[in-house]
Amino acid sequence: ADNKIYRASTTAPVNIAVVKYWGKRDVQLNTPTNDSVSVTLSQDDLRTLTTASCSASYPAGDSLVLNGESFDVSGARTQACFRELRARRAAVEAADPSLPKLSTLPLKIVSENNFPTAAGLASSAAGFAALVRAIADLYELPDSPSELSIVARQGSGSACRSLFGGYVAWRAGTKEDGSDSMADLVAPASHWPDMRALILVASAAKKGVSSTSGMQKTVATSGLFKGRLTDVVPRNMALIEEAIKNRDFAQFAEVTMRDSNSFHACCADTYPPIFYMNDTSRAAVRAVESINEQAGKTIAAYTFDAGPNCVVYYLQEHESTILGAFAGVLGGVTGWTANGVGAKPAVQLDE
Ligand code: PMV
After folding, report:
1. Shortest CA distance to 215 belongs to which of 26, 7, 74, 77?
2. DSSP category for residue 349
3. b or e along 320-344 (b: 16 or more beta carbons within 10 Å of the residue's beta carbon)?
4. CB 157 less than 6 A from any atom of ligand 1
5. Which residues, at least 6 apart from 261, have a Cβ–Cβ distance to it below 8 Å?
6. One pLDDT digit (tens) per residue for the chain, 351 residues
7. So what's the ipTM on this one?
8. What is the pTM of this model?
9. Count of CB atoms situated within 10 Å of the CB of 223
10. Which residue among 21, 26, 127, 209 is least packed, with the fewest CB closer than 10 Å?
11. What number of CA atoms fall less than 13 Å from residue 101's CA on the CB side?
């Protein structure tokens, strides 16, 4: 038998949504209740590095090691990704019988994040995007990033947006089987290359309420959420795509802040309520407001995901103002860690 080890390595970056995904249409297929848009951060700063390998010499069963610890692969999300990728490889093998039958071999996945896992820093997004791309590369699949985004989506919704750099939309789709719920590129990073993101780590601790259980409770109990779906998100989607197209930072920033506020208001309107932002997060909101007031125009935008950490978007030309303001305003605030990604002043966007 062929005991060769087949191997492929890849990295996938973190993305931070500016119009948020919050709510599942179908929990099994992991399709969303609404469209979303994100900005992909630089691979240099926040990324998952993943190596996928397979071999007949491996013990039976697939395995995954994340940051040096073995991770249970029996979960439905991971299984869905493995199953989909194997099916695609099997189709390639059926078309060309001279190819090795990799689809039948045990998979070994080894993954490293260079940032805290599950701290509201979209670690699952980079993680599942890297897992899917590493296996797709290992299997030499012909699939486009949009086609692979359908697989990554089944691992973690937001992961489908990390298959692209730059400004990325995830279209909720309408089909029952989820086959049109995929990501596409709104604009490459080079379209608006002076965009920057500052990551402020309020807490590197694991988040309290997982996004999956949080969003299901919001969908089931929040009255505000209905208006978010019918009114707020459709408007924000149109405005953010227009702002990106026109490189209109003030519009981009206002939509980003309003959408984050709308998402966290729906969390607070969930019964019982969910609070991801803390006092430190709110200090960051006030700091951004005071930066914009002093500038006399909007030069900074905050956004928060399912955790207390803040991401501030700004343009390179305002970097010294933004960093200076945060050094002064947040210097006396407790709760900000000086290590990890918080120590990186500027996270550059990637192509
Ligand atoms: O992909 P998940 O299940 O980790 O959910 C992510 C949800 C938010 O980060 C809060 C919003 C988003 O669009 O990324």
Report:
1. 26
2. B
3. eebbebbeebbeeeeebbeeebbeb
4. yes
5. none
6. 589 999 999 999 989 999 999 999 999 999 999 999 999 988 777 889 999 999 999 999 999 999 899 999 999 999 999 999 999 999 999 999 999 999 999 999 999 988 765 455 656 899 999 999 999 999 999 999 999 999 999 999 999 999 999 999 999 999 999 999 999 999 999 999 889 988 887 776 666 788 999 999 999 999 999 999 999 999 999 999 999 999 999 999 999 999 999 999 999 999 999 999 998 899 899 999 999 999 999 999 999 999 888 899 999 899 889 888 887 655 544 444 433 333 344 444 443
7. 0.98
8. 0.93
9. 9
10. 26
11. 7
Instruction: Return the amino acid letter for 335.
Output: G
181 lines ligand 1 (CB under 6 A): no
- Tokens linked to 318: 């305002």
Q: Does the Cβ of 311 fall within 6 Å of ligand 1?
A: no
Task: Please count the other Cβ atoms lying within 10 Å of the Cβ belonging to residue 106.
Answer: 15
For 183-207, give one letter per residue: b (16+ CB within 10 A) or e.
Answer: bbbbebbeebeebbbbbbbbbbeeb
- 120: CA distance to ligand 1 center in Å? 9
Cis check: omega of the bond before 59, within 30 degrees of 0: no
Radius of gyration from C-alpha coordinates of the chain: 20
**Which alpha helices (H) appear in the chain, and where do they start and end?**
76-95, 123-138, 145-155, 211-221, 224-227, 233-246, 249-268, 279-295, 319-330
Q: Is 40 in the pocket of ligand 1 (CB under 6 A)?
A: no
